[in-house]
C-alpha cells in the first residue's frame, strides 16, 4: 500500500516564523492553556481554541467555541476539511497547512510524528540575521544535523554571500515585503511562501510564480524574493571533483 503524505503546520506570528508541527494519527488541540498540543501564548487565543481531527486521508479543523473565532483564508469557520495551502488565523498567529511527500519523510515521521508540544510565546522571539531566522521553542528539542546545502546570493548588496541551510526551517526575504520559508526533511528541501507583502512581483522559482503550495528545491534552482535572486546549492548532489 502506498504511503500517505504527512500533513503539517508551519506557524508564524507577524513576520517571525515560529516552527513546524507534524500532524499524525492523533487529534491535536490548539489554545492558550499549557495542556494543549500547540500552545499559543496570546490573550486573543482562548484556553481551548480549536482542534485538528484526522479522518482517513483528511485533516479536519474545528473551532471549539472560541471567543475570537478561527479563520481559514480570511473566512470564519466552525468546522472545515483543510486543503493544501490553507492559511489558519488564530489570534495574531498564522498556521499554514501543507503536506510532506512520502519520499521526504524521515523514518520517525513515516512511523508517526513524535509527541511534542510547540509553545509559541512572545518571549521566544529570535531576531532575524541577514533576512533569515527561526524563532521556536519545542519540547523536547533536537538539534538538526548540518547538511551540505546553502543559498548563494546572486544580486543586491549581499551578492556572493552564502547562507547555510542547516536548520529544520529557515526564513528568507524581507519582513513586510516578501517572506518565504525553506524547510528541510531528511536530505530534501522545500520552499513555501509565507508572506506576499508589498513587493510588486510575486516570489519566483526558476522564473515561475512560487504560488501558495510547497515546492521541492533542486540543485541550482534560482529563487527570486523581495527583489533579490539567490541560487540553491546542494553539495550532496556534487561529485567529489567539484
From TrEMBL:
Segments for region (Disordered): 106-145
Domain spans labelled FHA: 28-77
UniProt-listed Gene3D superfamilies: 2.60.200.20
Pfam families referenced in this protein's UniProt entry, alphabetically: FHA (PF00498)
SUPFAM superfamilies noted in UniProt: SMAD/FHA domain (SSF49879)
Species lineage: Bacteria, Pseudomonadati, Pseudomonadota, Gammaproteobacteria, Chromatiales
Ranges of compositional bias, category Acidic residues: 106-115
Compositionally biased region (Low complexity): 124-145
Species of origin: Ectothiorhodospira marina
Top-rank lineage group of the source organism: Bacteria
InterPro entries: Cell_Proc_Reg/RNA_Proc (IPR050923), FHA_dom (IPR000253), SMAD_FHA_dom_sf (IPR008984)
Name the record gives this protein: FHA domain-containing protein
Amino acid at each position: 500500500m502506498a504511503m500517505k503524505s504527512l500533513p503539517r503546520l508551519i506557524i508564524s506570528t507577524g513576520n517571525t516564523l515560529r516552527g513546524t508541527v507534524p500532524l499524525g494519527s492523533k487529534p491535536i488541540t490548539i489554545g492558550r492553556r499549557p495542556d494543549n498540543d500547540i500552545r499559543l501564548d496570546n490573550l486573543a487565543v482562548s484556553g481551548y481554541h480549536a482542534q485538528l481531527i484526522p479522518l482517513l486521508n483528511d485533516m479536519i479543523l474545528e473551532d471549539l467555541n472560541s471567543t475570537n473565532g478561527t479563520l481559514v483564508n480570511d473566512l470564519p469557520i466552525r468546522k472545515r476539511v483543510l486543503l493544501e495551502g490553507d492559511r489558519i488565523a488564530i489570534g495574531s498567529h498564522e498556521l499554514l497547512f501543507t503536506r510532506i511527500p512520502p519520499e521526504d519523510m524521515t523514518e520517525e515521521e513515516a512511523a508517526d510524528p513524535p509527541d511534542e508540544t510547540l509553545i509559541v510565546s512572545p518571549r521566544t522571539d529570535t531576531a532575524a540575521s541577514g533576512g533569515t531566522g527561526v524563532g521556536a521553542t519545542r519540547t523536547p528539542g533536537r538539534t538538526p544535523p548540518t547538511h551540505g546545502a546553502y543559498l548563494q546570493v546572486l544580486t543586491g548588496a549581499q551578492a556572493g554571500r552564502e547562507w547555510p541551510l542547516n536548520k529544520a526551517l529557515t526564513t528568507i526575504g524581507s519582513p513586510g515585503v516578501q517572506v518565504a520559508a525553506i524547510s528541510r526533511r531528511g536530505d530534501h528541501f522545500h520552499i513555501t511562501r509565507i508572506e506576499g507583502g508589498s513587493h510588486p512581483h510575486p516570489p519566483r522559482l526558476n522564473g515561475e510564480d512560487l504560488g501558495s503550495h510547497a515546492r521541492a528545491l533542486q540543485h541550482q534552482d534560482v529563487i527570486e524574493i523581495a527583489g533579490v535572486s539567490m541560487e540553491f546549492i546542494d553539495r550532496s548532489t556534487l561529485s567529489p571533483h567539484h
